[in-house]
Records
---
Amino acid sequence: GAVVSQHPSRVICKSGTSVKIECRSLDFQATTMFWYRQFPKQSLMLMATSNEGSKATYEQGVEKDKFLINHASLTLSTLTVTSAHPEDSSFYICSAREGATQYFGPGTRLTVL
Amino acid sequence: SQELEQSPQSLIVQEGKNLTINCTSSKTLYGLYWYKQKYGEGLIFLMMLQKGGEEKSHEKITAKLDEKKQQSSLHITASQPSHAGIYLCGADMLGRGTGNQFYFGTGTSLTVIP
């Protein structure tokens, strides 16, 4: 089946730095990818829809200048958390759609000190 | 805001007991997915339901989609500690972007006491 990878799986950074998370579709092309965030004991919240070759669409309440999304190719979307703060510590998961099916990455755990 | 509401929000059961988790939408669902997860880990796909009245089972887990395709239930029979985790329903819905976006329900945290 289709596989989506994320890198890194875990990252620890200092407050004020920026962190980039990569999401790759390994054996298929994805014009649309999605980014989710999850806090402990909560569900996955859709942050934004990443569209290849165009601007991402952000969900209400998600700061586009804080969470920069770049979908430069049909197999790669990146999420950059700019000027990260401890409250950005979370679990981030991406997904890519192939046809009608969503494939999810394994997630990235971000800890901001 | 999430348009898929799950109940209960959390559940603590004794091993061996049966339990049911519900997922409700105000809109008709054209594909309802159930996942299991532990925080900080990836999603485990359980089942997908598409047709009204559809029911699927895998091992001790049964999922149903009602005739109106607005409510789904996940039933676990004779629960075991290995069933513990967060259960999420998910579905494609019209959102802010072009076409459909995939949204998750509010989640149900299940604890099974040995």
Note: The CA atoms of residues 46 and 58 of chain B lie 8 Å apart.
---
Amino acid sequence: DQQVKQNSPSLSVQEGRISILNCDYTNSMFDYFLWYKKYPAEGPTFLISISSIKDKNEDGRFTVFLNKSAKHLSLHIVPSQPGDSAVYFCAASFGNEKLTFGTGTRLTIIP
Amino acid sequence: DAGVIQSPRHEVTEMGQEVTLRCKPISGHDYLFWYRQTMMRGLELLIYFNNNVPIDDSGMPEDRFSAKMPNASFSTLKIQPSEPRDSAVYFCASSLSGGGSRTQYFGPGTRLTVL
């Protein structure tokens, strides 16, 4: 049973535009959410996170939104740059260090 | 500071052989995680340790898989005997508890190919 779902395997966005990556979860006990970015032949790297007590967290070009009632979070990248082309994973946790990851979305930024 | 170190980076072996993957976590981190990445399941948690003690191995697919953490700076994931369906990228990650961030730091991965 996939508790964290990324329903879009891929996404293409024009350079300079906004990229929106989506993630849905089923477990209402999750209290912390993270986004990771992964380049080919490298391990995932932490990008941004949000606690369930917030509905928005911003870090430079990256903003994560959390809608608890819909069990949905999204990552906004504005403006999108070629270096943002990567696979993005969302992850969720409840109460401890264990993370449950989604299957990832491959983002391609078109110059 | 050195990040998480994994070896080997690539491993090609034949079906039935024993495979050992190695991981050195970030110094001072008290949690260590082993993941497998596949197209179908994304990043799948296999097992994790806290202070060298296995906490949850429910993700280990079969008895052919085993993991150990003999000390705070070293862990192994062993597959014996290996099968072609074990071909995947295996990641090790570590984290430091407390502070509430729950951020895990990943190694570069080991790409395993079983022929």
Note: Chain A touches chain B at residues 6, 32, 34, 36, 41-46, 49, 51, 89, 91, 93, 96-104 (CB under 8 Å).
